[in-house]
Structures are given as C-alpha cells and as structure tokens.
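Reopening this ticket.

The earlier resolution said the output was attached, but the attachment link was broken on my side. Pasting everything inline this time so it's all in one place.
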Amino acid sequence: MQVPFDLLAENYDVDFTESAIGRMQRTQVIKYLDSMEFNNPDAKILEINCGTGTDALYFSKRGLNITATDISGKMIEIAQKKAEMGQQNIRILQCNLLDIGSVFKNEEFDLIFSNFGGLNCISSIDYQLFAQAIHHLLKPGGHLIGVLMPRFCLWDSLYFFVKLKFRTGIRRWTVKETLITFNEESFPVWYYNPGQFSGFFNNNLTIRSIKPIGLFIPPSYLNGFFSRHPRLLKVLGKIESKIENYSLLSAYADHYLIHLIKAG
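Inline output:
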C-alpha cells in the first residue's frame, strides 16, 4: 500500500534535509541530543518515523544501537541504502508507529525518538494506544524525545496574514485533523501544544525539557526566499541560539522539542 510519504521520499533530502533551513532546524535538535550522555555502551534507541535515515546515522556514528522505523517503504529504502554505507549498528524496519507495541513487545529501549512532526501523525484518539506502547517499551529511567508542531506558529500567521491568506494562517488553530501539503502532496496531521502532548502519557512520563525549534529560523516552505538571502537566515539562526532555553516560547515556534522521562 502506498502512503503519502512514499511520494515525497525521492526529493525529501533535497527539499528539506539538505536545505539551509532544514540543516539549521536539525542542528538545534542535534545540539540537544549531543548533551545527552548514555553511560550504558549497549544503550538501545528506537526511532519513529525515521524518514530517510538522517537521524539514525547520527545515532549510529555516536556508537549507539539504533532501530529506525517508518511506515513509508520508499523512505525505508533510502534509509537502508544510507545504512549500508559502513554503519553496522543500525536496524531499519518498515513499521506503522501504532504497531510498535506489538512489533517490539519483547524489547526495551533507553530512548524513543521522533523528529520533525512524526508524532503529529497520530490522532488524539490513537494516542491512548501509542502511550501504552511507549510505557511498556521504555526502560525505567528511559527517555522519550519528540519534535512536534504546535497549534500556533508565529511564522505561519505573520507570513500568510501579510499575503491575505487568512485561512492558511490559522490552519494550526484547531484540535481537528488538518490536511497539509508538502511538494503538492497532502496528508493529515494533528497539532499539539506541549502540555497536551505530555498529558497523553497520564503522568507515566514527566517533563524534563521543552525547547522551541524554529521560532526565528523560518519554516521550510520559505526555503526559496531564504536561499536567496543567506545572510538574513544566518542572523535569524544566531537569534534562535540565544532564545533556545526559553521553554515558554515553544508554543509559538514552527516545532518544539519535548523531552519526557519514565520513572526509574
């Protein structure tokens, strides 16, 4: 069965991963991940919605054991090709994120990770099943780190309001399913603020950190403009680095990083 991201896989790295904006936003995430120390050399990581495997390669190069999953067969094919280029500690599987509880029922992980909106692909109804799976799959003291899109994005509202596209400017302001378009392909997402997201886990996980990702760094749909104005983008990136620890700003950014921990 073909899924929407199959149609995006071939150009995904060019359009986002390797774009100036994509690299800047990912650098913010990697900076946070670099600060995490895994004292156990056998630490195991499960990545959800791994896309083309860029983050899986990052974990692998750190010497960590990474299992990367995605529902898109095309994304998995690209990730597998990357993993075959000398990285031995990566396992890549095609898997629906709502099936992780059954697929990995006999395993436990030190970190479960999902980058750039992967966890926005779950409805609030399905989060009950997903949260149960996370609770069983995480080791005591284990970490869940997600990078999600909140229900309000300052860039979205300012940019689309100026262009008089008011409906697009408020597209995130809803608890209902929203269709978003990436390179002319549409797929459903749900927007969650940090408090709502953490609430899905029924106090089984506690918040360690929340950080804005893309408050001053713009969304990827502005790649065209900022590719022509790299100095301006660089300035915005420097400003972003100054406010990265202001968790209250997370609900207004393009994405936010949220780090939850299971009791030890």
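Reporter confirms the inline version is readable. The chain has one domain: 4-152+191-262. The CA atoms of residues 147 and 257 lie 4 Å apart.
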